[in-house]
Every structure is written in C-alpha cells, then in structure tokens.
Amino acid sequence: MKAHVIFDFDQTLLPGESTVQVLELGLQYQGNAAQRLQKLASIAPRALAGNASAKELITLLSMVPSIRRKHIQLYVEQRLTQLPHALGQALHYLQQRQVGIHIISGGYMEWIVPLAQAWGIEARHVVANRFFWFGSRALTIRPSPLLSTAQGKGAIIRDWRRRGQLKGPVLMVGDGQADFRVFQQGLVDDFICIDYFVGKPLPDCAAIRRRAVHPDQVLGLIRQALAQQGLAI
C-alpha cells in the first residue's frame, strides 16, 4: 500500500454511538424498559467522555446481557445503506489507488465488521472491542486495549508500526479525543477532524487545519494531507 488512512467508526462513518444504539435495541422489550433506557441515556454521554463513575460503568455492563445476535443483525440491516454517499465514494477512490483503509473503534467487531465488509473494507483491517457470548446472548465485554485510556488506539497503531504493517504516510480520521491523541503522540502523520455528525465538536477541532464539516470534504482533505506528505493521488 502507498499510504494508510485509519477511520474512527462512530460519528465518523455513521451518525450516533453504535454501542448505545445496539443496547437500546436490546433493552426496549425488557422489563422496566423505559426506566433502563432512561438510565442508559443519562449515563452514556459521561461514559463516552470517560467521565462515568465506577458505579455507572457497572450499570452499563449489567445491560450487556440484554443484547442478542438478532439485535446486532437488525442494527447492521438498518445501517447498511446509511454510509453517506460521499464517504462511500471516498473509500472506493482510495482503495483504487492502493491506499489502505482501516477502522479502529471503541465499538464492537460484531457489527462493525459486517458493515465494513459491505463497504469494501477487509475484516482484517478492522480493530474494535468484542463480547463474550453464551449462544446468542452477549455476556460481557472481552478485555481490550481500546477500553483503556492509557493504551487506547495508540497501542494498536504502535503494534502495527512495530510489525511493519504501515508503510508510507498514515492519516487518522475521526471525531474524538482518542483519535486526536494518536496524532498528538506522533503515531500518525496528520489528523482530519470530523464534526458533521456531532452536536458538540471536539474542543480542539476548530483550531485544526483539516476539519470536515460535511462528508463531501473528507476525500479532498485526505488528498491534501497525503500531498503534503509527498504522495499525490
């Protein structure tokens, strides 16, 4: 590959936080559904920002067994055609020009992989969390560096670099602090800040020169960043 572009998933390729959306599908027909959905809506923003208390995180973990494989299948079916057209075109354009496309996400492999494959991204280029399963029922979350603020996406990219899997310029495309952090750590050559889906953009996003406020802008910003690294595509 001539270069590599690493995408976040939630709020970058698709709107919303996929883990919350799948949990909502699992909880909606459970006992006390309204109360549990309200609690999820209250805790999720703090958990996603890394500000949830231990008690709140335990509450979220207790909701995981509500997820069944049928809920994930429904989520995938609902989202298959929701990738913005401009992003689909961007992925195709990059792949045709031998640019490696990757996804690193705090979401879950169980739904990100089938969606990524439908969009032409190989499963081996997707890294996300996973569940432990008992039959068709999710039990809990498998340990993962993506669950650790101290490790996070940087640990994955460091490992790829150590293995020689990232040849040429490497870009990060995402909406969150975890995405921006890998650029600050010097693990990627440039960062494209996404804020077309988010209601509250990354605080540093306004100061970042490569900022996409619409999906139509993403490919152009990627091409600009690669050109600055000496690769015209």
Could you explain how this protein is built, in words?
This protein folds into 2 domains: 4-14 and 83-229, 3-Layer(aba) Sandwich (Rossmann fold); 18-76. It contains 9 helices and 8 strands. It has helices at residues 18-27, 33-48, 54-63, 69-79, 85-96, 109-118, 152-162, 177-184, 218-228, and strands spanning 3-7, 99-108, 126-129, 131-134, 137-141, 170-174, 190-194, 211-212. It has a 6-stranded parallel sheet with strand order 3-2-1-6-7-8, sandwiched between helices. Helix 1 (18-27) packs antiparallel against helix 2, helix 1 (18-27) packs across helix 4 and helix 4 runs parallel beside helix 6. It is globular and about 55 Å long. Pfam families: HAD. One of its GO terms (biological process) is L-serine biosynthetic process. This is phosphoserine phosphatase.
Task: Please name the CATH architecture of the largest domain.
Answer: 3-Layer(aba) Sandwich
Radius of gyration: 18 Å
The percent of residues in helical segments reads 40-55%
Strand residue content: 15-25%
The level 1 CATH classification of the largest domain is: Alpha Beta
Discrete helix count? 9
State the distance separating the first and last CA atoms. 12 Å
Number of individual domains: 2
Secondary-structure class: alpha/beta
Sheet having the most strands: 6 strands, parallel
Shape: globular
Strand order of the largest sheet: 3-2-1-6-7-8
GO molecular function, one term: L-phosphoserine phosphatase activity
Pathway: Amino-acid biosynthesis; L-serine biosynthesis; L-serine from 3-phospho-D-glycerate: step 3/3
Keywords: Amino-acid biosynthesis, Hydrolase, Magnesium, Metal-binding, Serine biosynthesis
InterPro entries: HAD-like_SerB, HAD-like_sf, HAD_sf
